[in-house]
């Protein structure tokens, strides 16, 4: 063996020894850090939070039409919660206190009170027997930005039907805001008073079947 060949082999042996003693430790250390990062990423990926609806800071209005005009008013949210995963809406529910229903368009007090009394009666919501309505979100599909397609179950007078509607939901730290317009067919909840689909010759006394619920909710992280 020549001196040059011996020198090359000796240099290679030294390099291999250095790799074996130090690089393995580095590889082990790097692997450990990688595992920690992956675990942290996994926790971030499935970050779930619960938000409780602020009853006083939320507003729910209603609007209904008839052949000769329309009426609108407000009704209170009694409680509600939302579940959020990675700042995206996943589910939730809220109750509507039907005994708080009011009318906003009739300025004559007697007429106003008569309308509200009718809405609370058995003819409409029968609030003595069914004081609350309830909406439960079945699914919320994000369509872009803060926009969602929401599907849920709406219960009125003990009758539950499927509903679907677009909604805007934004999560900013510990605060959630949500807004939506939900169109409801009242006849599906056994509210058929003056519906042209169930009564004939109503003329200008017709009350249209659909009414709108305009939802504006705020909720705080728990």
TrEMBL record:
Tagged with keyword Signal: yes
Family matches, as SMART domains: YceI (SM00867)
Organism, as annotated: Mucilaginibacter gossypiicola
Keywords: Signal
Domain Lipid/polyisoprenoid-binding YceI-like intervals: 50-220
Gene3D superfamilies associated with the record: Lipid/polyisoprenoid-binding, YceI-like
Pfam short name (any one): YceI
Full protein name: Polyisoprenoid-binding protein YceI
Stretch forming the signal peptide: 1-20
InterPro entries the UniProt entry points to: Lipid/polyisoprenoid-bd_YceI, TTHA0802/YceI-like_sf
């Amino acid at each position: 063996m020549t001196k040059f060949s011996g020198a090359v082999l000796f240099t290679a042996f030294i390099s291999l020894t250095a790799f074996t003693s130090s690089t393995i430790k580095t590889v082990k250390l790097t692997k450990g850090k990688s595992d920690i990062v992956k675990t942290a990423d996994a926790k971030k990926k499935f970050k779930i939070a619960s938000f409780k609806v602020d009853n006083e800071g939320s507003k729910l209005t209603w609007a209904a039409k008839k052949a000769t005009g329309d009426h609108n008013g407000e009704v209170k949210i009694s409680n509600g919660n939302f579940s959020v995963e990675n700042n995206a809406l996943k589910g939730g529910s809220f109750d509507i206190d039907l005994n708080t229903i009011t009318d906003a368009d009739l300025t004559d007090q007697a007429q106003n009170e008569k309308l509200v009394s009718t809405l609370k009666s058995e003819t409409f919501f029968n609030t003595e027997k069914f004081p609350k309505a309830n909406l439960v979100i079945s699914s919320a599909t994000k369509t872009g930005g803060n926009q969602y397609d929401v599907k849920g179950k709406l219960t009125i007078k003990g009758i539950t039907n499927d509903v679907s509607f677009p909604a805007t939901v934004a999560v900013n730290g510990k605060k959630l805001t949500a807004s939506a317009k939900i169109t409801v067919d009242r006849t599906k909840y056994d509210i058929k008073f003056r519906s042209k689909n169930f009564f004939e010759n109503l003329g200008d006394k017709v009350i249209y079947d659909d009414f709108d619920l305009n939802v504006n909710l705020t909720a705080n992280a728990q």
